[in-house]
Design goal:
With about 850 residues, this protein is α+β, with helices and mostly antiparallel strands. It contains 27 helices and 28 strands. It has an 8-stranded mixed beta sheet with strand order 5-4-8-2-1-11-14-13, with no helix packed on it. A 5-stranded mixed beta sheet has the order 16-17-18-20-19, covered by helices on one side.
Length: about 850
């Protein structure tokens, strides 16, 4: 594929009049787009993809044009340079790819219906109308939409509707914005609306398959989020309304279209009477993430896709800042510690990982940039580090100045660092360069050598890695004042350890709060001191110890066999984030044992010992006045007990299922996935399998759908697994947007792994045709690598994927995931005997 040509250099649009006529019955689009702009050369180009161009006119006269489908352009000869207004007439198919303009399907009372929505990020606006489809090419847009309308339908867009004439819906002109943020949707929609303190109308829209109460939570969060951001950014929301729309078919999680944010139904709608706290926190952070973009990304947009991180990392941090302000009792920063931090640390330790800031060479590489662990999670950690360094006052002042300087235009990362640095009187750009321009992160080794407390930094790798001597400017966040704020050198000496220890009166620790993107390897002297005072550590600090144990063990700088005896010290914690980190290590131990073996029995016995006291304390039913931590910890420890095949836990789950057999959807949402999975694994039958699969087809509750997915895919029955895989390509059962989760769950089921692996290899062409070109496509490779850990699977993985390594958008993923599996194979080979021996010794 050819290198991207910046069309904006030759033609700078200022305004679009976009008319689109959509025929759902015939699945066609016809339209004409009038573009006014400045032509700096006689030969200009605009983007198109899958459009059939019938004519290009200037001042009512046809002008010469050619279409280049490889470059996705229409190349036009204009009579003279300067301001020009050209009109392009075209037609296109209405496809089911979940890109461009596309239909979403759903059922109401058994009747199949559809609504039309859009997804233009990254470069799919060109599938809807001809345009300069580049983020820098900001312009104003006047939309006019006609469709095969019937009574009871609603149409919404970025801006309010202005008027309707001859069946055409005309919308108010937008503010100056990028093409990928244009959006509209129509169909039989219901909505709920409210107004913010400043007069912004906020609405939540969904199909009529949902209960009206499912819109309430999102409406409250959206309203409060906009009010919060207006105050925090000290910049008004720039549009008259903010619509949130749930689409039944949506490839991404959500999309920040300006004024019309689109979501997967699972990330916007929820039952206020039966949704787990975990799910409420997730939905709230998705909404606040997208609304953070209305300023950071929409009002001020990255100049080019290489600064994509600038949009996503910032919104990823701000989603937590906003939810923390709206619901402080949720302790949302603890969710950051259990989701963003470990995701970034695991991915960023593999050699070959992309840096946060990456050059883009061709269109296929743009979607490959959406590596969630790096662009979202690592980038957010970078900004959390900056926030910790400069404080909220400087952050808010810098952002206010940044928005004032660049509103309705574009900016780069350097522009943000300049604004924040001036507000904080600190060279933020110099500090951040080491983190954004080079991949990976350091392990800081803290040791006592010749009586001196020494720190050294070196790049940390999981698996083989090529050490090029990279150094980082590390915010140490130490609890001894002798440690510098920023460590720039490879090695530093803090002084006589015994004197420092006596003077400070506490164990030496680094990265207090776990906000900086590095891990710590303490020598035995320092670690023993920390463990002897474990009860003095906060939940986040205890979690950080467990997190670093796991990563150091994955990198073979520490042995899992040595970690196992330490785990019981953390097992009785009442903190959800400590338990999450504890059982993340337990899950890692599963790779060392063969399913169904005596060694696995030893692991299950150990897990039962770890979880028994917590299971007894928390039980299966919520207790009055219990903490949020208890609510969130219950499913973690109950899941551990079920894995351990604790007979009382299995029996209790079965009784709950039996007593609620005719109302499974009403089971308490936090334990429902465990009850369903337990029933399928231990009491399953073909009848139950069919009933649950039919429930999955019929329910519109996204949370319940997810629970059914987890249960059905856990069946140990090979014949039922075969039936299930036969449904993978049936969109009436499993929508393409949800298929990856089904594939991953069957693959992780030892009884289903071979069948799932055979399916993806045999039907790769179908998968590529169905979801290829979408930013989620490469993640099918990722989830496969995350499950595999044996030499045989590694060989099969390489045999299948190495011939595809030159496929644009897949190259880095394939290369990295081979390394991921290789590192696990080497780890298991090196440590299996010691891990099994330790498990047997601690369970005697």
């Amino acid at each position: 594929m050819s290198t991207i040509k910046r069309l904006y250099e030759k033609f700078q649009p200022s305004h679009y009049d976009v008319f689109i006529n959509i025929d759902r019955e015939k699945k066609t689009i016809t339209g004409n787009t009038t573009i006014t702009g400045n032509a700096s050369e006689p030969q200009i180009s605009v983007n198109q993809k899958f459009l059939t161009i019938s004519s290009v006119q200037i001042a009512g006269e046809d002008v010469p044009f050619t279409v280049n489908n490889d470059d996705e352009t229409v190349n036009i000869t204009v009579p003279e340079t300067g301001e020009v207004t050209l009109t392009i007439n075209y037609s296109a198919p209405l496809t089911d790819t979940m890109m461009g303009i596309y239909p979403s399907y759903y059922k109401v009372n058994g009747e199949k219906k559809q609504i039309i929505g859009t997804q233009f990020e990254t470069i799919f606006a060109r599938q809807a109308f001809p345009c300069v489809d580049e983020p820098e090419a900001k312009a104003t847009f006047s939309l006019a939409i006609k469709f095969d309308e019937h009574p009871g339908e609603t149409i919404i867009a970025n801006m309010p509707e202005d008027h309707v004439s001859a069946g055409v819906h005309y919308f108010q002109q937008t503010v100056r914005m990028s093409t990928y943020l244009v959006a509209f949707a129509f169909g039989e929609l219901q909505s709920k609306k409210t107004t913010t303190e400043s007069g912004v109308e906020v609405g939540v829209f969904a199909t009529k398959a949902h209960q009206p109460k499912e819109l309430d939570f999102a409406l409250e969060i959206a309203k409060k989020a906009i009010e919060f951001y207006e105050k925090f950014y000290q910049t008004p929301y720039p549009l008259p309304h903010s619509w949130q729309l749930a689409l039944p078919d949506f490839s991404a999680g959500a999309m920040e279209n300006w004024g019309l944010v689109t979501y997967r139904e699972a990330y916007l709608l929820l039952d206020p009477d039966n949704t787990s706290l975990d799910m409420k926190r997730l939905v709230a952070t998705v909404i606040t993430h997208e609304l953070a973009h209305q300023w950071f990304g929409d009002l001020v947009t990255m100049k080019w896709w290489d600064d994509l991180w600038l949009n996503e990392s910032f919104a990823n941090m701000m989603e937590y800042v906003a939810v923390d302000a709206i619901h402080p009792e949720w302790k949302i920063w603890e969710l950051f510690q259990t989701s963003e931090a470990p995701m970034a640390l695991q991915r960023d330790a593999t050699d070959g990982v992309q840096s946060v800031h990456v050059q883009v060479n061709n269109p296929a590489e743009i979607d490959a940039l959406f590596d969630g662990a790096i662009v979202y999670a690592k980038g957010a950690r970078m900004l959390v580090m900056v926030r910790a360094l400069i404080g909220d006052d400087a952050l808010r002042e810098g952002l206010k100045n940044y928005f004032e300087a660049h509103q309705y235009h574009n900016a780069t990362g350097a522009d943000l660092w300049d604004a924040l640095g001036k507000a904080a009187n600190l060279d933020i750009g110099a500090i951040m360069k080491s983190w954004l321009e080079q991949p990976g992160y350091p392990v800081v080794e803290a040791k006592v050598f010749d009586g001196q407390l020494q720190l050294s930094q070196q790049q940390f790798f999981i698996g083989d890695g090529h050490d090029t001597g990279r150094l980082w400017q590390i915010p140490l966040n130490a609890n001894y004042k002798e440690a510098p704020q920023i460590m720039k050198e490879q090695t530093i000496n803090l002084g006589d350890y015994q004197e420092l220890r006596q003077q400070e009166g506490k164990p030496f620790r680094l990265n207090i709060g776990n906000n900086s993107h590095f891990i710590v390897k303490y020598d035995q002297t320092l670690m023993n001191d920390i463990l002897d005072h474990l009860d003095k550590l906060t939940a986040i600090d205890q979690r950080q110890l467990l997190q670093d144990f796991r990563l150091l063990a994955d990198g073979q700088q520490l042995s899992y066999a040595d970690i196992i005896p330490l785990l019981p010290r953390f097992a009785d914690s009442h903190s959800e984030i400590v338990n999450t980190a504890l059982y993340a290590i337990v899950n890692k131990l599963k790779q060392f044992v063969t399913p169904g073996s005596a060694e696995e029995s030893a692991l299950k016995k150990f897990v039962n010992q770890l979880s028994a006291k917590q299971v007894s304390r928390l039980g299966w039913k919520p207790q009055s006045n219990e903490s949020n931590d208890d609510q969130l910890t219950r499913p973690i420890v109950l899941g551990a007990a079920l894995y351990a095949e604790n007979p009382e836990a299995i029996k209790a789950a079965h009784e709950i299922f039996t007593n609620n057999y005719h109302r499974l959807e009403k089971l308490p949402a936090d334990i429902r996935p465990l009850v369903l999975r337990n029933e399928v694994k231990h009491y399953g039958s073909k009848e139950l399998f069919n009933e649950l699969l039919e429930d999955y087809r019929e329910t519109i509750d996204a949370s319940y759908k997810g629970d059914l997915n987890g249960a059905i895919t856990s069946t140990p029955d090979n014949s039922l697994i075969t039936e299930l895989i036969n449904e993978f390509e049936n969109a009436d059962t499993i929508k393409p947007q949800d298929l990856r989760g089904w594939y991953r769950n069957v693959l992780a089921n030892n009884a289903g792994q071979q069948a799932a692996w055979d399916w993806i290899r045999n039907d790769w062409d179908w998968l590529e045709k169905t979801v290829g070109g979408d930013m989620e496509f490469a993640t099918y490779i990722t989830v496969t690598a995350n499950v595999f850990h044996t030499p045989a699977r590694l060989a099969e993985f390489k045999l299948f994927f190495e011939p595809k390594i030159d496929t644009p958008g897949l190259t880095r993923e394939i290369t990295m995931d081979i390394s991921v599996i290789e590192s696990k194979v080497k780890l298991v080979q090196a440590e299996k005997d010691a891990v099994v021996k330790t498990l047997q010794s601690v369970t005697r």
